[in-house]
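Thread: Newbie trying to understand structure tokens

Hi all, I'm a second-year student working on a class project, and my supervisor (Dr. K.) asked me to get a predicted structure for one chain before our next meeting. I've only ever worked with sequences, so writing a 3D structure as a token string is new to me. If someone could post the tokens and maybe explain what I'm looking at, I'd be very grateful. Here's the chain:
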Amino acid sequence: MIYDFHTLQFTSTQAIRAGSFDRDERCMVAMLKHGKEQTRPSLDKVIAVLKEESVTKFGATAYCFGGRYTFDLAFDNVIQCIVVSHPSLFTVPDDLKAPLLINSCEVDQMFPAEAQAKADEIFGDGKFSPGYKREYFSGCTHGFSVRGDMTDPLVKAGKE
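---
Reply by user tm_fold:
Sure, no problem. This is what the structure looks like when written as tokens:
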């Protein structure tokens, strides 16, 4: 099971693999109807439970829509590092304040080549003290790390 922030419910991996829902429609609904007020409480509940279990440091990985929320958690000093793949809903450089790994790709309307280059210019070559690295996956498009075509060797390499 995977927690689906698009519906704020658990979704089976079988449903995701089978493509039994319209991903693009779900993303648009999520962006329009599931802002911070709807999404953040779920994250805070998970973190609270983990803290009760004596977890003291957190990192987060996110894809597309979830990237925004990992940045917010970092801004609030809840998590200490971030990994995002094909991120969206954030601004370069304003939203980059935690150690960061960005998995980017060739065709990405949400994090286009210009934004990728700007992130490298601002944070690359040791300029960003928390830490910065951007991986680039040629032949991939936005969404490659969660819904890529596994028959395409470039996309498969990007996802793996």
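A couple of things are worth pointing out once you decode it. Residues 70 and 154 are 27 Å apart (CA to CA). The mean pLDDT is 78. Feel free to ask follow-ups in this thread.
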